[in-house]
Amino acid sequence: QVQPRSIFESFFIPPGAEQQVQGLGSGFIIREDGLVLTNEHVVRGAEQVVVTLPDGRQFQGKVVGVDDVTDLALVRIDAHGLPVAPLGSSDSLMIGEWVIAIGNPFGYLLSNTEPTVTAGVVSGVDRNIIGAGSGTQASAVPPGRGDRGDRGDRAGLARLRPVQAGGDDAGDESRGYYLGMIQTDAAINPGNSGGPLINALGQVIGVNSSILSQSGGSEGLGFAIPIDRARRIVADLLAYGHVRRAWVGLELGESARPEWGHPRRVTITHVAPGSPAAGVGLRAGMTLLSVGGHPLRTALDWEARMLDARIGVPLAVTVDDTPGGRAVRLVPGDLPSVGAEKVRALSDFELVTLTPAIRAERGIDTENGALIVNLSADARDIGFREGDVLVQVNRLPIRRAEDAAALLRRVAGRGPIRVVIEREGQLMSISFYVS
């Protein structure tokens, strides 16, 4: 979608105008049968994916799985016997150890297909980078598609960008935040998105994803997704077609300001009934000190650890409710909406009944209703989205998923249908016909 940048441009760009754009990024082969790992923002919205190997051979790529939460994607090409990048571990990285970044900065502007190598050190680990939407001075954008991502920024503020080159829609690539990232001063430039960050042993320890920059080029502040996280995402995408998120049922907050001489405190604000956290006795008002041996200084530290948590694998959580703290063995489970009973409505919706646990999982205000967990292309075109909560059908309230299915079946073909939904905390209505 082409968006006018000024009132003057709006006179010449009609509403809904579109143009075709091209993006460029990097990636690396993780299996000899043609499985390539890259960033989600590199392939997002692509109608066609072309993979070029260092020897110049080109292949049509098929996106076999994406995870926009961690900004990772899997692409498959029809090739065999390919050289594979050896994967290492990001768990024991030392600040100051040497690393190299490999990728294709600025893509074909360098006129050949061989990648570029830059060297640096691990500048930091467990970095949480927050976007402009969260009220900080860094605007989170995956390593960008072009050079128009600065539009609308306040002058002088550094911008977190994806490091992808080409195209013209970087302004739409904003991300809320990157969590638990590896920071490096190895030069990462547009086009490096999805390329490997490698240790001195030649093992991949990260996936290059973003830079913090005022100029749009490398300023020594590059960030990579830890390879241990990427391994888990790849395994889930191949096994299930999606990523299984670990859930414990906690909502956290921080003290408004740190006490003099003490760090900011991370406090439990809500525990979902029937959740794993409730099962081990955690309750609102408790302060969390650490998880898995990692100290919690902000609520984002907790979110970063939950990104790497595995369902059924215990987490050691330290709670400050006794002198010296107390250790709790917390076992994450599946998201409540994943295990809930699914109800089919018409041929277009898959619904689950709202429960207190699902409300806590999704941050839903409505007490009763039916959550959309899957929907058809037709329903999506009408305006529905996964995560919407059906609250009313033709002014009749919905208490359970079965109610929604029965009401939609009853009114189908009898005139217009008006459905009230909750989306991101706001109520709105969608009207449509069913033939």
- What form results from the Cα inertia axes? globular
Strand content: 25-35%
Span between N and C termini? Answer: 31 Å
| Low-confidence sequence ranges | 132-158, 166-174
Overall strand count: 26
Largest sheet: 7 strands, antiparallel
Q: Rg from C-alpha positions?
A: 24 Å
Number of helices: 9
State the helicity in percent bands: 10-25%
Q: What is the average of the pLDDT values?
A: 83
Derived structural class: alpha+beta
Feature tags:
single chain; about 425 residues; alpha+beta; seven-stranded antiparallel β-sheet; six-stranded antiparallel beta barrel; 9 helices; globular
Question: Could you walk me through the main structural features you see in this protein, from its secondary elements to its overall organization?
Answer:
There is one protein chain. With 435 residues, the chain is α+β, with helices and mostly antiparallel strands. The chain is built from 9 helices and 26 strands. The radius of gyration is 24 Å and the shape is globular.
Q: Topology of this structure?
A:
Elements: H1 7-10, E1 28-31, E2 35-38, H2 40-43, E3 49-52, E4 58-67, E5 72-77, E6 98-103, E7 116-130, E8 139-140, E9 159-162, E10 177-184, E11 196-199, E12 204-213, E13 222-226, H3 227-240, E14 250-254, E15 266-271, H4 276-279, E16 287-291, E17 294-295, H5 299-308, E18 315-319, E19 326-330, H6 336-339, E20 343-345, E21 349-353, H7 356-362, E22 370-375, H8 377-382, E23 389-393, E24 396-397, H9 401-411, E25 417-423, E26 426-432
Parallel strand pairs: 8-9
Antiparallel strand pairs: 1-2, 2-5, 3-4, 4-5, 6-7, 6-11, 7-10, 9-12, 10-13, 11-12, 12-13, 14-15, 15-16, 16-17, 16-18, 18-19, 20-21, 21-22, 22-23, 23-24, 23-25, 25-26
